[in-house]
């Protein structure tokens, strides 16, 4: 009781010589704390807050090439959103974005997890091969997409040449509207495997081997061990990999632009490529901003899920 | 390691110091140059140029720099990045003194108010091909001059045509028959770019325009006939289905590799074509349905004088652009770039002395500017056109439906 009284009393009895110093010290401590936070706050405000707010404002303006010189951008209300939702390409883009993201994430994860489990066994060259696996991650995306464009070419591409050996007729990978999206997703899966493998592999490293030893004594090996030990132990890593993967995949433009440019006949157009096209090819920056705001909103939902998961992971 | 030549290292250090000093001095000069604004004595003889060419174009600039008495700072930007850079420079008021723009972009940039009318410097496009004037005029004022221009024509492989007993076609029927006859084994009779970019639109335009079609409304009989024609070439097997993924450079590669007997392409490919060993080729204007003169799109880049708020420099820039566009200079630039002079008399003379570009000279006379009708609204129309071509060639819609869909959809 005396303690609580003392703390409450302290400010009033602050006239004694030592007390002001203490108070100053406390104030300094508070200020120092804020000083440490300030750079992060300024950074986020300038490099994330400003562009996002600017983008939202832009989506309500008639923002054209003229704006850059005159600074005039008349307010148009929801006209840009009406134009966005009214265009036939938008519906295609939404469906393609969903297919592209879901397809990429599922396959990247399954293959990534498979490889991570595979590399957990010790075998000669395992470290070297694991390093080699990172290669797609290290290449500039635009270079990868250019190479894949050659590989997937219908007439002279290496893939069709190879399949031709087995008598498979030339497959129009990037030419057929129904196959192009599959091809683009395939390339994106290839690009995403290193990320998934690496994170999942490190997640697997944290599972204590004693658990498996104990489990094997109880007769749990193979799939049983996987479902009862491995999977529950890496569950939080799995959710982080998937949520981050979704956010990364939603905003992919370079691979699609490099491979198909959104074609043929808009069959690989996603929200991200649509926003790019509106802004930098048609010079309709307002509509481009409206499309990318839709994308930001979707990403935001997943970012929230990510925050919730990572907080839960810390609490655990 | 001990330096073996102490004097050398010292001199190097000294030199780098001097270099740093010079850099600081230049920075100071640049800064004062900016703040003084109207510095007519020092700033008046300096010009900055921005383009998406390469260093091979510099000699052309140097000739005119000497003539008007200017020192040049030449800045070559990657093609795709030019417009983004120009917009950024427009908002920060750092536009160059002389700006090169692809001709369909001139009206777009002029509409923003960033360019100055060339009549201010006593310049006009009189004597140039009419379409050049149209492409560079916005609301009745001329904003750009093109020393050279280009268009597209039908290249053909002489040997392959001879072997098949085919003469270069003049009409659609002849082209279709020739392409079919020339399609053998791994060789397609005909190649063109139908990619989903403005390159695809640009290649389809001769068929659309020559047949009386119009970009204002592509849901028309004339447009349907044009698109059906290209679609027929593909269904005949004369045009590879991959053409929807080919840029013009890819088409050229196919032609050089002997995988296409005829192709649509521009004179800028001539250096590459001439370098190909054992390739004998020639070109004719693009065939039309009735055999009349083709209406092809006009290409090439224009030089403009941006609003830089420095009257003296702008005047000098105007003089410089005037020099580049002088008939004599046009032929110099044509020689260096493989293009066609825009001055009518100069181009006719040029076609006679340079048989490889004669078909382009013919085409350019009747060529049409892409922005001539719609001005800054052209990009939307261009997107609609390549979308229709892609819808039809991928079999997603019949040519008529493809055009209808593309015309009605808000891209």
Automatic annotation (TrEMBL), chain A:
Task: Identify the residues that the record assigns to the ABC transmembrane type-1 domain, covering every copy.
Answer: 94-306
Question: Which subcellular locations apply to this protein?
Answer: Cell membrane
- UniProt keywords, alphabetically: Cell membrane, Membrane, Transmembrane, Transmembrane helix, Transport
- PROSITE patterns according to UniProt: ABC_TM1
Superkingdom of the source species: Bacteria
Specify the protein's topology with respect to the membrane. Answer: Multi-pass membrane protein
Note the InterPro entries from the entry. MetI-like, MetI-like_sf
Transmembrane regions listed in the UniProt entry? 34-53, 98-119, 131-151, 171-191, 237-260, 280-309
Q: Which Pfam families match?
A: BPD_transp_1
In the record, the note on similarity to other proteins reads:
Belongs to the binding-protein-dependent transport system permease family.
Q: What's the protein name?
A: Sugar ABC transporter permease
Supply the source organism for this entry. Frondihabitans peucedani
UniProtKB/TrEMBL annotation, chain B:
The family database entries (Gene3D superfamilies) matched by this protein are listed as: Periplasmic binding protein-like II
- Coiled coil region boundaries: none
User: Signal sequence span per UniProt?
Assistant: 1-27
Q: Which UniProt keywords apply?
A: Signal, Transport
SUPFAM superfamilies given in the database record: Periplasmic binding protein-like II
Please give the superkingdom of this protein's source: Bacteria
Q: Which InterPro entries match?
A: SBP
Question: Record keywords: Signal included?
Answer: yes
Q: Which Pfam families match?
A: SBP_bac_8
Query: Does this UniProt record's set of keywords contain Ribonucleoprotein?
Result: no
Q: Which family does it belong to?
A: Belongs to the bacterial solute-binding protein 1 family.
Name of the protein described by the UniProt record: Sugar ABC transporter substrate-binding protein
Q: Which organism is it from?
A: Frondihabitans peucedani
């Amino acid at each position: 009781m005396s303690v609580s009284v003392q703390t409450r009393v302290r400010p009033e009895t602050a006239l004694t010589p030592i007390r002001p110093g203490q108070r100053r010290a406390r104030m300094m401590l508070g200020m120092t704390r804020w000083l440490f936070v300030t750079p992060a706050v300024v950074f986020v405000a300038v490099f994330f807050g400003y562009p996002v707010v600017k983008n939202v404002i832009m989506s309500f303006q008639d923002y054209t090439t003229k704006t850059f010189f005159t600074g005039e951008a008349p307010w148009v209300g929801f006209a840009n959103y009406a134009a966005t939702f009214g265009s036939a390409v938008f519906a295609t883009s939404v469906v393609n974005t969903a297919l592209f993201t879901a397809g990429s994430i599922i396959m990247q994860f399954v293959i990534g997890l498979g490889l991570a489990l595979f590399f957990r066994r010790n075998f000669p060259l395992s470290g070297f091969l694991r390093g080699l696996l990172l290669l797609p991650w290290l290449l500039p995306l635009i270079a990868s997409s250019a190479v894949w464009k050659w590989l997937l070419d219908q007439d002279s591409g290496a893939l069709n040449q190879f399949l031709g050996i087995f008598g498979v007729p030339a497959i129009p990978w990037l030419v057929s509207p129904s196959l192009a999206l599959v091809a683009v997703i395939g390339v994106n899966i290839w690009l995403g495997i290193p990320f998934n493998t690496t994170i999942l592999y490190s997640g697997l490293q944290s599972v204590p081997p004693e658990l498996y030893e104990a489990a094997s004594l109880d007769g749990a090996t193979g799939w049983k061990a996987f479902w009862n030990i491995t999977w529950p132990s890496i569950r939080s890593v799995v959710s982080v990999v998937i949520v981050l993967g979704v956010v990364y995949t939603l905003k992919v433009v370079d691979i699609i632009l490099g491979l198909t440019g959104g074609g043929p006949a808009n069959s690989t157009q996603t929200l991200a490529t649509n926003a790019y096209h509106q802004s930098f090819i048609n010079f309709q920056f307002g509509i481009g901003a409206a499309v990318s705001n839709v994308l930001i909103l979707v990403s935001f939902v997943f970012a929230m899920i990510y925050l919730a998961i990572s907080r839960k992971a810390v609490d655990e | 390691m001990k330096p073996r030549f102490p004097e050398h290292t010292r001199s190097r250090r000294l030199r780098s110091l001097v270099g740093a000093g010079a850099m600081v001095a230049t920075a100071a000069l640049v800064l004062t140059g900016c703040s003084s604004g109207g510095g007519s004595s020092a700033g008046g003889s300096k010009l900055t140029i921005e383009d998406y060419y390469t260093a091979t174009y510099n000699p052309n600039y140097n000739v005119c720099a000497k003539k008007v008495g200017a020192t040049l700072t030449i800045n070559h930007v990657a093609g795709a990045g030019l417009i983004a850079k120009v917009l950024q420079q427009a908002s920060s008021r750092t536009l160059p003194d002389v700006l090169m723009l692809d001709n369909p972009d001139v009206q777009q940039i002029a509409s923003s108010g960033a360019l100055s009318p060339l009549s201010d410097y006593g310049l006009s496009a009189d004597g140039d091909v009419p379409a050049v004037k149209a492409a560079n005029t916005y609301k009745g004022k001329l904003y750009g001059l093109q020393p050279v221009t280009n268009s597209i024509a039908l290249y053909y492989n002489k040997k392959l045509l001879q072997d098949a007993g085919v003469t270069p076609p003049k009409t659609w029927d002849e082209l279709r028959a020739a392409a079919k006859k020339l399609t053998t084994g791994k060789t397609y009779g005909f190649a063109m770019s139908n990619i989903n970019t403005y390159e695809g639109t640009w290649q389809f335009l001769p068929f659309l325009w020559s047949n009386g079609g119009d970009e204002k409304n592509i849901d028309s009989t004339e447009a349907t006939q044009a698109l059906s024609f290209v679609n027929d070439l593909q269904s005949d097997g004369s045009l590879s289905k991959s053409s929807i993924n080919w840029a013009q450079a890819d088409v050229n590669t196919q032609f050089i590799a002997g995988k296409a007997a005829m192709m649509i392409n521009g004179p800028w490919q001539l250096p590459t074509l001439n370098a190909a060993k054992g390739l004998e080729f020639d070109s004719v204007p693009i065939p039309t349905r009735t055999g009349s003169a083709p209406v092809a799109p006009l290409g090439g880049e224009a030089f403009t004088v941006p609003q830089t708020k420095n009257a003296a420099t702008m005047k000098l820039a105007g003089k410089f652009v005037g020099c580049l566009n002088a008939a004599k200079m046009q032929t110099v630039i044509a020689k260096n770039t493989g293009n066609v002079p825009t001055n009518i008399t100069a181009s006719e003379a040029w076609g006679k002395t340079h048989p490889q570009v004669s078909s382009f000279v013919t085409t350019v006379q009747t060529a049409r500017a892409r922005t001539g009708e719609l001005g800054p609204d052209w990009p939307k129309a261009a997107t609609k056109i390549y979308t229709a071509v892609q819808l039809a060639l991928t079999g997603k819609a019949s040519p008529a439906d493809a055009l209808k869909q593309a015309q009605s959809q808000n891209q």
